[in-house]
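TL;DR need structure tokens for one chain.
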Amino acid sequence: MRLQRFNATGALSRGLDHHPMFDKTQLQGWKSLQKEKDLPTDAWKAHVQHGLDNGLTAAASVQDRGISTFVRGELPHFAGINTFMKAPFCENVHNIGQYDAAILGVPFDGGTTYRPGTRFGPQGIRKISALYTPYNYELGVDLREQMNLCDAGDVFVIPANIEKTFDQISRGVGHIFASGALPIVLGGDHSIGFATVRGIAENTDKKIGIIHFDRHADIQEKDLDERMHTTPWFHATNLPNVLAKNLVQVGIGGWQVPRPAVKEARKRGTTILTMNDVAELGLEKTAEIALETAWDGTDAVYLSFD
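>> reply
TL;DR here they are.
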């Protein structure tokens, strides 16, 4: 046992077994401090000015003149209209190509076989995202400064018809992709994975890989006689430019993986990494395998988190 000695003031005194001082410049915390000073602030200044231009300058008693009378931006986190991370709302989707990436909500849970409610997912994600800033300390990334993000709102789903909803999703995602923006989709149950991939695949002749994080394989042909949340990758990998050999599934396992899905994955030659694989390989090696497999001979990779 290492003994600690305290001096008369209660402060820890140095003993013979005291460890030498560490080099704090090797800590991520120190490196993150340095990264922040190199990040620009132009987008934040424009964001504040937008609020003042559109939300009326604050009352004379408010000393911070960057505050507006009407909420028109990120702050305060508990107020305002909840787009994703308070990103600008792109009302006219014909202008969506002006952005680097676009959030698209798909409030649909008609493909669930057990518990409904994920139709409220996009609303819930947007609401909780208002608590966060675009800046991540450890990564040294400020999304506001480093990319141009918008929220395109939600797909108009048809609650009683899964196939019509799929068509709506594919049309919406395809429009965003064809416009040059990166579609970021908020579900919704996992049946929408097929329609989302289809929307991209139909608008390019290039090949697409898939990395899928889940506990379930979601690759059987049907569930309860329909295309449901357990079937997206069967139908996605039937698309001519989405090959099953480029489908990587991470985390699959446990007591809720239907055997028809296992047989289909084996038949199609997909790559599955269980949680045991992740634990044994480590996160870096797991990521390396997933990326190498998904990118093998492809031009783009679709990420899915269920």
